[in-house]
């Protein structure tokens, strides 16, 4: 882990997932308005199965099929077995174009980059994301409905594909910000603790270690569910995005690895802005500010790391993707995040510049 060097998040907002708006110009405008220093390449709204985060992450995998009738992603074993070497060869040759995305994901990026050019400014950080190889191997099934995770060679192929995808994304946003951050979303890590999972925690951590070791730029991990925090905090990552209410106490339970992570410059993206409709409707920026400040203080007291350091090494984020909300609700969440970030910064004497 290398940390962000001279740049520290200072409780700035960090988007997770995408937005529900169909108009790319609207998406670009919202990104620039609410995330001026930390714009994100948002995932497209999942209006069709092909636009879901898992389908996007699997684009380019030989044999990948979108089964609309059964609402699932499947991989034809025979085609994968025949053509898997193409993925490995592209990986060995660093042929990032092999993992180039097509469709709405590219359209919205083009509009966002056009707007950044028009405004003639260079943000501090540009963030992009993709589903990681652990969750992808558990979500994708073959023609016999068996997850690809049952075959180590297919996990390896997905690792190669994910690496190429991030490298390709990294190239697309070159020159548009001072730093680039690749966030790997692993929503199924908690499955590794279940008895019938084809992967163990050691398997999952090994995949992630090897993935992060070779990624360009800054690297991060979005988490969901129950995870083994001691292992997560030792991964070679710069940012860990987590659900504040669900993950704070388990994180504090492993104080030594957490202290090491922070001392090495590691940052935490606190998922505090709710994406659940009922919770979002009742959320207030002042209350969320208090939750963040309390969490930062607890981390400082538990680890011995100064609260000011934890503050500077924190992002404010969301509990999930905004893409599944209505456009009005998503804009409400963005506004709430911006207001909460401003209140936190004012409370601790930080400036969002």
Structural class: alpha/beta
Largest sheet: 7 strands, parallel
Shape: globular
Please give the radius of gyration in angstroms: 19 Å
Q: How many strand elements?
A: 10
Can you characterise this structure?
By secondary structure, this protein is an alpha/beta fold. The chain has a domain at 12-250. Helices cover 47% and strands 14% of the residues. The strands form two sheets. A seven-stranded parallel beta sheet has the order 1-10-9-8-7-6-4. The chain is globular, with a radius of gyration of 19 Å.
Compose a concise summary of this entry:
With 353 residues, the chain is an alpha/beta fold.
Write the layout of secondary structure elements.
Elements: E1 12-13, H1 24-34, H2 53-58, E2 64-67, E3 72-75, H3 77-92, H4 104-119, E4 125-131, H5 133-139, E5 141-142, H6 152-172, E6 179-186, H7 201-213, E7 218-223, H8 229-232, E8 239-243, H9 244-252, H10 255-263, E9 267-273, H11 277-282, H12 285-303, H13 307-312, E10 314-318, H14 327-348
Parallel strand pairs: 1-10, 3-5, 4-6, 6-7, 7-8, 8-9, 9-10
Antiparallel strand pairs: 2-3
Helix pairs in contact: 1-4, 3-6, 5-6, 12-14
